[in-house]
Amino acid sequence: MNVLTDNWALYGKGLLGTVELTVYASLLALALGFVMASFRVAPVGSLRVFGTVWVTVLRNTPLTLLFFAVLLGLPRFGVVLPFQLFAVLALGCYTSAFICEAVRSGINTVPAGQGEAARSLGMTFGQTLSLVVLPQAFRSVIPPIGSTLIALAKNSAIAGSFSVTELLGTYKPLNELGYSIVWTFVWIAVGYLIVTLSISAIFNVLEKRWGVPR
Description:
It is a multi-pass membrane protein. By secondary structure, the protein is mostly helical. It has helices at residues 2-5, 8-40, 45-59, 63-73, 83-109, 112-120, 125-155, 171-176, 181-210. Helices cover 78% and strands 0% of the residues.
């Protein structure tokens, strides 16, 4: 227990870093995921191709490799940002591919007649998607989106290897101070459990309120 009580500040800083990474990357992933899902069902061929390439490349690229590409590659092109922001970009873009596919599967559950009825009323594709299709699709994809964001929270541990403050990275200074590595990781695991259970609780509330009855 002294591993935790003697290092409240260190654990707290790491937990806060993980929460910040999770929140910011989740917002980016949700925004990009919905946009890419819209591209994938758009009537414009070039948008469909762009969305397909985005999903195919990111879903088949190891996240660690993507971190290297963002944190070490972008500065070579003159893009210099704080490491935490680079980590948010890597996590958010990677997760957006999975959000996109979840949303697209939800869009496919909406009866085609809904879109046809909207178009018969003179709605544009954007209006049909945002006002008719996506609100219905969102109800059916709440659980998979929640699972994807829980995975994002756990994937944020990779950021610690790139000088970003997060929970897993606390084991390094604690190990140097001679604390038990077993109990160090036990309390790190408890921290991740708090984060993932919080996300799960939020999405359980959303599912009960707006989810499709099963």
